[in-house]
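Because discrete structure vocabularies remain unfamiliar, it helps to consider an illustrative case, giving the amino acid sequence and backbone structure tokens:
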Amino acid sequence: EFRVQAIMGWRVARLLLLLPPVVRAQQPGTPQKPPVCDYSLIEISEECPSAYGFDWQVYHEQLYQARSFVFAGQARESQEAVLKLLEVVTKQFWFAFECPLAVAATYFALAQSFAFQGRLRRALAFVHMGFIFVRDKGFSECTPWPVQGWDMLLAGRNLVSWARQLDDESTLQQTPAQFRLSQQQRRS
């Protein structure tokens, strides 16, 4: 009986060695390496094909350029340029869903801009707007757009925490408890 198990185990191991590396990596108990991401190989036209003739590649370049104004000491110009880009793609709101990560990246860039100015409630509003565009497919951590899932998630978490602290400070303690939301109710 032991010999049968050893032979069967050896045959399975031999078969696994004959399989391509991708299939071998999917076997249970085998540690999986995260896929290597080279976003420079991703074509914008493939990630965001346009049914309306909009050039998302140009938008991509303009978004990076608008964000870079900050490093030239032109924070206000950067914010205005990003707002103009946002206006282009959200003038007809349905159109923005043609390339959701592009629009989420634009909202995230505005959220960062407002957060740097200390306008945190407005930053939180822009993060929430950005989440509208990733609700169906979620984030791809390998994208050429200047937004990553963890960046937005952590920004949203930290901004909500900050807003809750302000809300707690503004709650009147003399208001009877039955008319206030408990900590548990607010988190759900």
